[in-house]
Amino acid sequence: MIEISGLKKAKAVPALVRVNYILPMKLSNGYICAGGRTRYSSDMAKIPEYIIEEIRSKISISDVISQYVTLVPKGGRLWGICPFHNEKTPSFTVNEEKGFFHCFGCGKGGSVFNFLMEIDNLSFVEAAQVLSEKSGVHIKQESQEDIIKRDERDVLYELYSKLSESFHYILTNKDEAKEAREYLKNRRISDEMIDTFKIGYAPASPDWLYLFLRSKNYSEKLLSKSGIFSRNNPTYPLFMQRIIFPIMNNKGMVVAFGGRTLDKNQKAKYLNTPETPIFRKREQLFGLFQGLSHIKTLHETIICEGYFDVVALFQSGVRNATAPLGTAFTDEQANIIRRYADTCVLFFDQDSAGREATRKSILVLERAGITSQVVEAEEKSDPADLLQKNSETHLNDICKNRINGFDYLVKSALNKYDITLPEGKLSVFKEVKPYIEIIESEIKKHSYLKLLADVIDIDEMVIQRELQGSSRLSSESIKRDHQGRFHASEARTSHTRGNYQNQGENSALIHAATLSADMFLMLTLVNNRQYFQRVRKSVSIQKIIDPEAAEIYTALEESLREGETSFEYLLERIEDNTIRQMVIMSFGQNEFIEEAENIINEAVKKIKLRSLFSKQKKIVQQIKAASVQGINEIDLSKLLFEKKFIDEEIKNLRKS
Length: 656
Hints:
The chain is an alpha+beta fold. 51% of the residues lie in helices and 10% in strands. It has 5 domains: 5-43 and 144-279, Alpha-Beta Complex (DNA primase DNAg catalytic core, N-terminal domain); 49-135, DNA Primase, Chain A, CATH 3.90.580.10; 288-409, Dna Topoisomerase Vi A Subunit, Chain: A, domain 2; 417-483, no CATH class; 486-656, DNAb Helicase, Chain A. Strand 3 (72-74) and strand 4 form a beta hairpin.
């Protein structure tokens, strides 16, 4: 049974919510599954972050720790014998200004909350309650309504997860799904892909799902919000006689379903779960979770149109494919991709609708600062159709045939208009103009204007005047934005762990000279959080080559997205204990505080140059290889142009 009294009645939610796992089991009507294992989850409310900050501001960490440890001032810090391990020489230090402690002997460290949790074996909430009494700050936990909403989301996650298992079980085991299995076989979808994406099947029966879930004590109110049933008839399932594709967030949690009908009488061929408390379709990408490791490795993702396209690409060995959810590619989805990749390849069907979707997606990617490329398929088919008609190898090879987004826009416009006529030249310009207008790099914009002028045989200054006549961007604002967008830096190997894990007073400070440019930048940003939002626009995580610094970057990024400013929550997001202790140690050191803006600017500049030099080296190698192996003039021209562009970027950056 699933008992969720807090969702049915306006009273306190019990301390533990009992949740039965839904496991495949035949009912009297022949469908879906029920329970076996039980888990218990605490519903302890989260203390609002502003309360944590207020407690911290009113509590002296040294006063609290002095009740357990004798502290002696030395070198701007307080020192004592660590209470967590046996030692003779003091290696336990407290930084009053920043409110943190750290032991160089055993590695324990954190805020005053962490100290109480360690010394008295308390939970975070219990430690907060103790400190609230000392500080006089009243702890206001989440309201009853907040608790109910949070618990409601948890139950929806659980419900979607178990329904996903059930739909998958029905597809792979039930006679009712025979037609669905045949359909997938005809589309050449392998059993491996069915398991990888947990593809399922929703039977044609209109009443089984609601009756079953109500028998498990899911409330009518919750089911009406679940997105699983019709809005017009809350007992009628949204998905019937459909192949089901579970939609997962980047953590692998099922948040929605997409369904492909097998009933020719149904009007909608594809149907998605409507938006719910756990799902916004503009912010999710199908296939992202399954392909995340490949996307991170390649720093690249392929965007296609639908569920079957993603599955077809995966089956063909292209494991970094994703797709928007039945809607146009959105800015929110581009921002998600930007966390993991700096290049996005568009692979849409090149019919009129697909070409328009490609054009709009190129603009979305440019706004997000992501390099766009487009697959040029000879056949006017999508990946799923190509797999059905050809081999996996053929589809994989097609994905390698690409051009950059600007070239695609120009090429598409040239196919539509006659540039031997003045009207045709103007039409090509208007087609490409929206893309050029949003380019923030002045050098990149100028370079593309020059290429466009050559293509349509118009003086570059004429095009420049035409663009400026309708553009709202001032040259000053373009230059200012340009200076914050280049992604590069010079490398220096990080010797982080060996340089600060020594015990004793001599290791009390981090030696900045031993740090990589990446780590120096991250520790400075940790101490000056107000600069991170600006820095992340010009230095993506893909440009951070020091893996330890990358973990700090990820923690800062997640904290920013969640609107968190407290140090406690930032530390919780850093999984590696050694890195966490280094962050703690950095607080209060002058190297990471004094002239922070100048330090950050210099570190960003180094990272930008490093990236540019790396790109420059690769292109030079490609040009040398081309001279030996032979290459057509168009491809060589592209390489030479790209090298010239990077050379100008480096020259401009060095002058700045």
